[in-house]
Amino acid sequence: MSLNETVSAERIHIGFFGMRNAGKSSLVNAVTGQELSVVSEVKGTTTDPVKKAMELLPLGPVLIIDTPGFDDAGSLGEKRVAKTNEILAKTDIAVLAVDPAAGLSDGDRTLLSLFAARKLPYLLVYTKADLVRYENPEPGSLLVSSVTREGVDALKNRLGDFAKTVKRDKKILADLVTPGDVVVLVIPIDESAPKGRLILPQQQVLRELLDLYCVPVCCQPETLAAALDSLKAPPRLVVTDSQAFRAVAAIVPDDVPLTSFSILFARYKGELTQLLEGAAAVRALKTGDRVLISEGCTHHRQCNDIGTVKLPNMLRKLSGAEPAFSFTSGGEFPADLSDYALVVHCGGCMLSETEMRHRLDVAKAAGVPIVNYGVAIASATGILERAVRVFGL
To answer: Which CATH number does the domain housing residue 361 bear?
Structure first.
C-alpha cells in the first residue's frame, strides 16, 4: 500500500441496505459508475458484502458497501443477515433502497429502527423510478433510476450533505508535537514483522509526523541507545511497538515522554479512558474466567503470535490463573459479551473509528472490562502510568 493511499479504515463507510431485489446492487453500480455488484432479477444474488473504495466530494475518500438482502431466508440467509448486521456496525452513512412496487416493508422499518438506534445519518431511496413512480414518498426521500440515472446525481449530492456530520479530520499525535520536533519511532523487525514493509500504525504515525514537519528517527530496539546518543538534544517523544516496551523503557530517560503505537491508536480510534479502566481487570482474572482476545485484521499466525500465544501467557502469569481464551479476528465480534470476564483488543488500526467505538459500546453495555494490547502490556511491565503521561493522564 502506498503511503499516499487512504486506507479503508480511514474512509467514510457508506452502506447500502434493503430487502432482496430492491435494487441495491444496481444503485451501487450507478453511484460508483462501475459494474461492481452482480445484478439479476433473481432474489438473493448478492450473497456477501461487496466493497468499493472511491472519492466522493465533498466527503472525500469513501468506502461503498453493497450488503445482502436483509430479508434473506433459510440457514444461509440467516448468515447473510448476520453479515449485514456486521456491516451496520462499521457504517457511517446508510442508504436504504426500497422497491417502489412493494413500498416500505417490515424489514425496511426494522432497518430504519436500527439506523435510529445507532444514530446513523441515512437516506431513503425508492429505486426503479423508470418502471414504477412511487406516489407518496416520505419527506426527504429520493426517487432514483439506475437505468436512466434519474436522481443519481441528487443522491450523490445528498450524501455529500453529510460531510460536516461524519467527515474525519482527527490526528493521531498532532497535539503532542510541534514542527521541528524530533520523534523517535522504535520499530522491531522480528519474526512477526511483515516482509519488506511497515505495519499500518507505523506507516500512519510516520506519515503524520512528516506532514507536521517533524523529524522522525526510526530505529530498532537494538539500535535505540545509539540513536538517542546521536541526537544533540533529547527527543520530544519516543513511540515504541508494545512488545518492546520493557526494553525501550529501560533505555529511554524517564524525563523523555514515552508511549506506544497501540496506545496512540487507542486514543485515536476509541475511548482511552475506558481501556485504561479495563487494565485493572487483568490481574483479577480467575481460573475458568472467559477472556476474548479480538483482532481487527486477519493475518497468518506465527508460532509465537502475540494474540494467541504471547498475550495469553502474559495474562496467565499476571493473574496466576488459567482463564479460558476465545479468539476472533477481522469483522467477527460477538454481539453479546455477557459471558466474558475481560476483552483484550488489538489497537484497531484496520477498523474504522465507528466500528471500534461500536465494540467499546458493546463491552460497556455488557459491563465487561475491555483493554487493548498496548495498555495491557504497559500495565504488565509496570510502565502504564509513564506511557499515558504524555496525554496529561
So the answer is: 3.40.50.11410
Contact 290, 326 (CB under 8 A): yes
DSSP-derived secondary structure for 349-366: TTS-HHHHHHHHHHHHHH
Q: pLDDT at residue 191 above 80?
A: no
The one-letter amino acid code at 280 reads A
* Host domain of residue 241: 174-264
Residues 207, 342, single domain; the answer is no
Looking at residue 159, its pLDDT comes to 93
Residue with cell 490463573: 321
Q: What is the pLDDT of residue 167?
A: 65
**Predicted TM-score of the model (pTM):** 0.81
What's the rounded Cα separation, in Å, for the pair 333 and 292? 9
What pLDDT, in 10s, does the model give residues 332-347? 899 899 999 999 998 8
Measured CA to CA, the distance from residue 182 to residue 168 in angstroms comes to 26
Q: Cα dihedral sign for 145, 147, 148, 151?
A: positive
- Say if residues 260 and 240 touch (Cβ distance below 8 Å): yes
pLDDT for the residue 381: 87
Confidence bin at 132 (pLDDT 50/70/90)? confident
Distance CA 342, CA 325 (A): 10
Average pLDDT, the chain: 87
**Same structural domain for residues 23 and 154?**
yes
Beta-strand runs (E) in the chain: 12-18, 50-56, 60-66, 93-98, 122-126, 142-143, 182-186, 215-219, 237-240, 258-260, 290-295, 324-329, 342-345, 370-372
Instruction: Note whether 291 and 365 are same-domain residues.
Output: yes
